[in-house]
Each structure stands twice: as C-alpha cells, then as structure tokens.
Amino acid sequence: MQTLMHSMRPLLLTCVIAGLAACSDDGEPAAPQHTPPVPVAHQADHELEWLKQTDGLLPEQWLASREAGHELDRFDGRVSDMHAVLQVAAMRFRDHPRMIANRAVQLETMLREKNIEERAPRLIVTLSQVPGKQRYVESFASLTQQYYNLRTSGLSRGEATDALRRQVAPGQ
C-alpha cells in the first residue's frame, strides 16, 4: 500500500498544483475541458464615460461622437469643430484637451444628476469664455467645480457665468 501511495504522489501533486485539471477515477489526469470564451461586451467609443490615455481616441472625436450619438470618423467636420473648441480651452486653461473633455463630461453628468441639462461641448465653450482671451490662473477642473456649485445653488447658466467672470476680473 505504501508503495502504491508513493507511486501516486507525483500524480496527486500534479493534480493539486494544476488546480484546474481534475483527476479521473483511474488515477490518470482527466483531459482538460475547454470552455468556449465568454464574449466580452464592447462598449462603443462614443459611450465611454471617461477617456483614458490608452484609449487611442482623440478627445475631439470622442466628444463629437458623443454628441452625434454614434461613431464619427476623425475627419468629420464635427470632429474638426470640436478640435477648435478644445484648442481654445487648452489655451485658456492649464489643462490638456483630453482632461478638459473628461472634466466637461464629468460636469455634464453631475449636473444631469441635479436635473440640469447642459452638454459637455457647450460647457467647454461657456467656461472658455469666462477668462475672455486671457489665460485663466486656475485649471479647467477648478472652474467646473465652481460652475457646478453656482448652478446647483439655483443660478442660471448666464448668472453663473457672470459670477465667474466677476471673480476673474473683480471691479470691472
């Protein structure tokens, strides 16, 4: 019996180590069963909630596609228009276009949760006008938080924008 146990030790070890392979009743490892891969649901690019550096999608293409409700080719005129909007915002703030796009979508979501409907591209345009043609000393993210606080306190888009402009250029 001890010889039998000794001879089965490598087989038992193999079964334990493999963990996934089962042993059949005759002491031989059972053939591994192949299960077909489970298909992973692919989220369309325009449905992404956040644009990561690794997504390989231009922020202007992502925003324009979100607005259109479907994927747009990067050479579509709406993508070019969105590129121009993001470039203006990037010149006025310390943030890159990808971060501006992400923050604008985040703000859109936060406002929607408070039953305030404003789309991300419009938010970028509106907030880019706050500092005028000068460079804003704070980040776009900082301005989005201030705008959110003003809008959720009951101010309209225009009132909130005016209040932010007064903060940028007090006494004017």
UniProtKB/TrEMBL annotation:
It comes from Hyphomicrobium album. It comes from the Bacteria. This is MxaH protein. The keyword Signal applies. Residues 1-21 form the signal peptide. The keyword Signal applies. Keywords: Signal.
